[in-house]
From TrEMBL, chain A:
Pfam families: ABC_tran. Keywords: ATP-binding, Nucleotide-binding, Transport. Residues 18-250 form the ABC transporter domain. GO terms for molecular function: ATP binding; ATP hydrolysis activity; transmembrane transporter activity. PANTHER family: ABC TRANSPORTER RELATED (PTHR24220:SF685), IMPORT ATP-BINDING PROTEIN (PTHR24220). The keyword Amino-acid biosynthesis does not apply. The keyword Nucleotide-binding applies. InterPro entries: AAA+_ATPase, ABC_transporter-like_ATP-bd, ABC_transporter-like_CS, ABC_transpr_LolD-like, MacB-like_ATP-bd, P-loop_NTPase. One of its GO terms (cellular component) is plasma membrane. This is ABC transporter ATP-binding protein.
From TrEMBL, chain B:
Pfam families: FtsX (PF02687). This is ABC3 transporter permease C-terminal domain-containing protein. Belongs to the ABC-4 integral membrane protein family. It comes from Planobispora takensis. Keywords: Cell membrane, Membrane, Transmembrane, Transmembrane helix.
Length: 254, 643
């Protein structure tokens, strides 16, 4: 089953940065085998923001991991930024992680011993660049944390930590940002801030965002929504409202 | 990269403090051993010392050097082993953080460089501290060697600037070597591991671990086979090598034993929920369990194995001495007093052996190299006929019947030293005379045997009268040894012992130096292993804060959580003790009495018992304390906290 290419405001951009064809992912073997993804084909167009939704255990995180080259697929092909990464070497994947993709996850994943500034600068340093303090401070200012650069993660609230994580993901200007429940642990206010930041990445910088979420309101901020069920793509919506999303979701779960 | 290392070190100091401590102790230990060893290489003979005194000092130095030559490599091994397992464990604890670095674009080589860089810094810091700590350690080691009589009281180890090179090389080398394999393993963490905060079911028995473990095991088994039927020296060498390779093998393979013992624990504690939980934890944290077990394995394997080997060797020497000596009593007295022994009723034969002050210069030839050597010690004046009847020896050549007048017999101690046939030059007081070699005695096991036997009629009477003398006494059949001993004592002749007592005491005196070194080695490896065990427990407890909190939130009381932790660590310690005992048994296998030879097995049961109790106590106390600390904050605070 092939989901029609979801169209975003930047639908004119030729190369789809993320494309999965007939991707399956199985965990374990024998009796305990789990089919997390079953022949999923989906395209995330450049400069668009796609939300991935579905019941718990439907394979959303797995889809994200496979698309980002964090996990190997059992069958099928994955294209990332025009490169076939299905059998990419570790060095190739590392290069992609440095230049092309960024990650934001539910549980923030900051390094506790480093300050916010150091956390933000880390991907650039790992890539061998010497980020200027200005760049780092600009990134933090973009997420509204200009004055918290010297603080350690444990001195920041959950929403602030998530914004640091987003600043860290933005600082390398990745063409694709993968986010797994980025608002999952946040209150409504912080969640709204995070969604505004993602919107800005897509609109201002033309970056592509793939976001897993359980929240219809968050999904409504996206350009398109893909619904997963039992490891298959069950449905999709373009420019949905929160009510539409909620309704489809209920139908899926029911 | 270095900045990341530095802030990681600052933030997670318990992880690094343990590693730093092990490096520091290792450097101090190796440095002090080497300094003392080097200083024993050049004996300082006080000016004006007689040849006799000089030779004694020199012999002491040689003995100390031999012992240190044995102890230094063992100290090195301990340092590498303990530092290695501590580092490997601390790297394992940082999996998630390393995976996050991978996710953010860190490459494998970068991760390896990061860990090696940290190890380098720790090695450098540990070396600096170790050099400082090495100074008092050197002094203590020298004092110990003086205390056991191997070195003269005015001995002091000289500082050598070479240490400024050697110690950092040891510290950094040990640290980098220790982290090398762990860093390669860590570089293989998948970026995805950063997302799994739940305990991961990663494979513990990696291919490398299998290879390392199995090849060491094969080597150990080969050593055991080689030791079977080896002579005593061979058995001793094998017993020294087996604890090293056996500990490596069983530590690497110990994760295989964890589930077994877990199941055992499960059947014992089946009924209690606590036991079930402890068993499950044990199974789930195989890697942590293995890290706690490793130092216990090496501790028990090394100490019990070596002590058992040395004790067995001593027992064999004393049995050999007893077997080759045909006497009922041994009297220690002056030569003058010894002359009265034959008159005591019940004495059938008395063979006086007097240590005489003279020197003998002999021509040696060993491996095409000829040299002259003057001996001042181990020259014994005997009555040839009585000597022959009190010693069951098969001479290598010649006959003791001819040992009269200007003659000499080559003693057991020089049997293998290539003394050339013909004559030797002797000096007795002011006189210089040539003695003809008439016999050569066979080698014996004990260390303190004679260099030369000379006939009593060669010696001036006054000299014999003063000489310290041991007289081997045979009794007339049917007399009570006790009665004769009492009569000799009553006559005020000297100290009387049975043959067995005499042989044991004699060997014990000779072994005193070895045992002293063993005591030092034991103390320091015990301390070392204890630190490594505590280290593993503390690091693990820090990691388990949240797990403990969840357990409490689920309804376990604080004391139940603590008890669970104690039961777990006791089980892990038992695994270590079990495997360590296995290593020790392998080391001692070649002493097991078999056909041929005088192999005598002496198992140090007391030491084993002490080690078992001490290890269990240390791990129980450490895990109870850390669990108490980790459960101090309210559980909800921890369950909620996430970073
Ligand atoms: N490492 C793994 N081993 C075995 N099974 C796994 C593994 N990871 C995921 N699964 C299984 O694959 C299926 C999909 O998991 P996935 O994490 O993708 O779900 P999800 O849609 O993200 O769920 P949630 O909304 O709860 O996060 C689930 O049934 C899960 O149990
Ligand atoms: Mg998920």
């Amino acid at each position: 089953m092939r989901a029609p290419a979801t169209a975003g405001p930047h639908a004119g951009v030729p190369v789809a940065p993320v494309q999965l064809s007939q991707v399956s992912r199985r965990y374990g073997a024998g009796e305990t085998q789990v089919q997390a993804l079953a022949e999923v084909s989906v395209t995330f167009p450049a400069g668009s923001w796609t939300a991935v939704m579905g019941p718990s255990g439907s394979g959303k995180s797995t889809l994200l991991h496979c698309a980002a080259g964090l996990d190997r697929v059992s069958a099928g092909r994955v294209l990332l930024a025009g490169q076939d990464i299905t059998h990419a070497t570790d060095a190739e994947l590392t290069r992609l992680r440095r230049r092309t993709v960024g990650f934001v996850f539910q549980n923030f994943n900051l390094i506790g011993s480093l300050s916010a500034e150091q956390n933000v600068a880390l991907p650039l340093r790992l890539a061998g660049a010497r980020p200027s303090r200005r760049d780092v401070q600009t990134a933090l200012a973009d997420v509204g944390l200009a004055d918290r650069g010297r603080h350690r993660p444990r001195e920041l609230s959950g929403g602030q930590q998530q914004r640091v994580a987003i600043a860290r993901a933005m600082v390398t200007r990745p063409s694709v940002l993968f986010a797994d429940e980025p608002t999952g642990a946040l209150d409504t206010g912080s969640a709204r801030t995070v969604l505004r930041l993602l919107r800005r990445m897509v609109d201002a910088a033309g970056q592509t965002v793939v976001m897993v979420t359980h929240d219809p309101v968050a999904a409504a901020s996206a350009d398109a929504v893909v619904f997963l069920s039992d490891g298959r793509i069950a449905d999709h919506l373009l420019r949905p409202s929160a009510a539409q999303v909620a309704e489809r979701l209920t139908r899926l779960e029911g | 990269m270095l900045r990341i290392s530095a802030s990681t070190v600052r933030d997670r100091w318990p992880l690094f403090a343990g590693a730093l401590l092990t490096v520091t102790l290792g450097v101090a230990l190796v440095q002090s051993s080497v300094l003392v060893l080097v200083s024993t290489g050049e004996p300082t003979i006080p000016p004006g010392a007689s040849g006799r005194v000089a030779e004694q000092i020199r012999e002491g130095y040689v003995g100390a050097a031999t012992l240190l030559g044995m102890a230094t490599p063992l100290a090195m091994f301990l340092a590498v082993f303990i530092v290695g397992s501590t580092f490997a464990f601390s790297v394992e604890q940082r999996r998630e953080e390393l995976a996050l670095l991978r996710m953010l674009g860190g490459s494998r080589p970068q991760l390896i460089r990061l860990l090696l860089g940290e190890a380098f810094l720790l090695g450098l810091a540990g070396s600096a501290l170790g050099i400082l700590l090495g100074m008092p350690a050197t002094w203590i080691q020298a004092r110990l060697l003086i205390g056991i009589g191997l070195l003269p009281g005015d001995f002091s180890a000289r500082w050598s600037n070479g240490m400024l090179l050697l110690s950092p090389a040891v510290g950094i080398g040990v640290a980098v070597l220790g982290v090398l394999s762990a860093s390669y393993r860590a570089a293989r963490v998948r970026p995805l591991d950063a997302l799994r905060s739940a305990p991961r079911a990663t494979r513990v028995m990696t291919l490398g671990r299998w290879l390392w473990g199995v090849s060491s095991l094969v080597l150990t088994v080969m050593l055991v086979v080689a030791g079977h039927g080896a002579d005593l020296l061979g058995a001793l060498l094998v017993a020294m090598a087996i604890p090293v390779f056996g500990s490596i093998a069983l530590s690497a393979l110990s994760p295989l034993a964890v589930p077994l013992v877990g199941r055992l624990l499960g059947t014992v504690l089946r009924t209690s929920a606590l036991g079930e939980l402890a068993q499950a934890n044990l199974r789930d944290a195989v890697r942590r369990s293995a890290s706690t077990a490793a130092p216990v394995i090496v501790l028990v394997g090394l100490l019990v194995g070596l002590t058992g080997a040395l004790n067995s060797l001593a027992r064999a020497a004393s049995a050999d001495l007893e077997r080759s000596t045909a006497a009922d009593l041994v009297v220690t007295s002056t030569g003058a007093a010894a002359a009265r022994i034959p008159q005591i009723p019940g004495v059938a034969l008395a063979s006086p052996q007097s240590q005489v002050e003279m020197s003998v210069t002999a021509q040696h030839r060993v491996d095409h190299r000829s040299y002259r050597q003057t001996h001042h010690w181990g020259i014994t004046a005997v009555d040839a006929a009585a000597y022959r009847r009190t010693h069951r020896l098969t001479l290598r050549s010649g006959s003791l019947d001819a040992l009269h007048g200007r003659t000499v017999a080559i003693g057991p101690r020089l049997a293998a030293e290539g003394v050339r046939d013909g004559t030797v030059t002797a000096r007795i007081g002011p006189h210089k005379l040539k003695l003809r070699i008439v016999a050569r005695l066979p080698e014996v096991l004990e260390n303190g045997s004679d260099n030369f036997l000379v006939p009593r009629d060669l010696m001036p009477t006054a000299m014999l009268a003063d000489a310290p003398t041991e007289t081997l006494v045979q009794l007339t059949p049917g007399t009570s040894p006790q009665a004769v001993a009492d009569r000799i004592r009553a006559a005020g002749i000297g100290e009387v012992r049975t043959l067995g007592q005499w042989a044991d005491a004699r060997v014990e005196t000779q072994q005193r130096g070895t045992m002293g070194i063993m005591a030092v080695l034991m103390g320091m490896s015990g301390l070392y292993a204890a630190i490594a065990v505590i280290n593993a427990v503390v690091i693990a407890a820090a990691e388990r804060r949240t797990e403990f909190a969840v357990a409490r939130a689920t309804g376990l009381s604080r004391s139940q959580v603590v008890r669970m932790a104690v039961v777990e660590s006791a089980a892990v310690t038992l695994i270590g003790l079990l495997l360590g005992t296995l290593v020790a048994a392998a080391a001692l296998a070649s002493f097991y009495p078999g056909p041929g030879g005088v192999h005598v097995l002496s198992v140090p049961w007391t030491l084993l018992g002490l080690l078992i109790m001490a290890s269990l106590a240390v791990t129980a106390v450490a895990s109870a304390l850390t669990a108490l600390t980790a459960t101090r904050p309210s559980p909800t605070a921890l369950v909620a906290a996430r970073e």
